[in-house]
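I'll show an entry:

:::
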Amino acid sequence: MLNKLFLKLNFGEKLRKNLFVILLVSFGGAIIYGLPYFRYDYYDAYLEAYKLNNTQMGVFGSIFGVFGMVSYLFGGYVADRISVRKLLVYSLLGTGLGGFVHLLPLSFYSLVALYAFWGFSSLFAFWPACVKAVRMLSDSDGQGKAFGIFEGGRGVAAALAASVAVILFKVGVKTLGVYVGMRYIIVFYSVLTIASGVLVHFNMKDEIINSGEKISIADIKNVIKLPAVWIIAIVTFCNYVFTLSLYYFVPYATSLLGMTVTSAAILAAVKRY
């Protein structure tokens, strides 16, 4: 049945063979960002639970972004020289373990250090490794289908995880209060992230690493001169600005529209669908 469907969809042999692994990578690509970003879906609850203010919340986003930006400069280079499987596994395990560190009674500066670590663990070589993994696991003439499955899988995984997180938060708040609700969410995303790393470790094969071509300053200058590179950069920048702006609808909904924290979190989960 599945083979007939794959043939009808014109899936190549390599894509059919590695579909499960691509879905695992897709799941990891969604769930790894649950920990660094869940605070946006529970903005007011996060402020209350950890005795923070809006400025301090902004610092978390800034430090995460700065470390991520610096990491991206070298992530692609590293992904070409280190096993993609190892990069994915270490990134997922490291980010998940960071979630358990979050359960400790951390000060503001300790939380800043944690978000800096997440900026490195979830962005450094993880995203370049995801892209390379999908490319490696699919046929040369089926890249579009493979990346469509990857992105679609990420969307579904993120939406389902956010929905479960809302339920856990509601249970925690009803039993022992907002702080416990936050801890339930952290444990949930931490366990999923670590489990994702374990699944990738046991289901994905190591690829053969080669040193690759040497990159010179002249090569970088030639790339920078390409108009297409700047167009793609501008489109990506605008996309990220819009996407990140949606996260602030939650505090808008609670502060100005009068929604409860749980209702706003449900709204944040629904928008993922």
